[in-house]
Design a protein that fits this description.
Blueprint: E1 2-3, H1 6-11, E2 14-19, E3 40-46, E4 52-57, E5 63-67, E6 73-77, E7 91-96, E8 104-107, E9 110-114, E10 119-122
Antiparallel strand pairs: 1-4, 2-3, 4-5, 5-6, 6-7, 8-9, 9-10
Length: about 120
């Protein structure tokens, strides 16, 4: 599944949705311009991300994201300690290539990402 990272790009953050029971009363002031469906709330999942664009959620719950500012790369974010955040020690760079944009997918054991003119594939 590919997610639209427009809001995350503007804020320089990645978000995840959590159900109301863990967010009751805590969401109204978190993101002033966020339009969030009743029953969900926006929370920061990873800070310090460099211009996130395309995102892909793996079957194991890890988040892959194309980072576009500075060195363009595909990074993986996870939450090993189950605190709801991907801390600096819960992320890694999987691949890097020139001018990656928002295209990202995983298929047949390969990671694919694209620039404006090239599709890259990594095992």
């Amino acid at each position: 599944m590919i997610f639209n990272a427009r809001s995350a790009t503007l804020l320089g953050l990645l978000y995840t949705l959590a159900s109301v029971p863990s967010c009751e009363g805590a969401c109204e002031d978190l993101y002033e311009n966020a339009n969030i469906v009743d029953g969900y709330c926006a929370r920061q999942f990873a800070g310090g991300v460099n211009g996130p664009r395309g995102m892909w959620m793996t079957s194991t719950g890890d988040l892959l994201a194309v980072e576009r500012e500075g060195v363009t790369r595909v990074s993986v974010f996870w939450d090993e300690d189950n605190d709801g955040l991907s801390s600096s020690n819960e992320r890694a760079v999987l691949a890097a290539a020139p001018k990656l944009n928002h295209g990202i997918t995983v298929s047949g054991g390969y990671l694919y990402a694209s620039s404006d003119t090239t599709v890259y594939r990594w095992p």
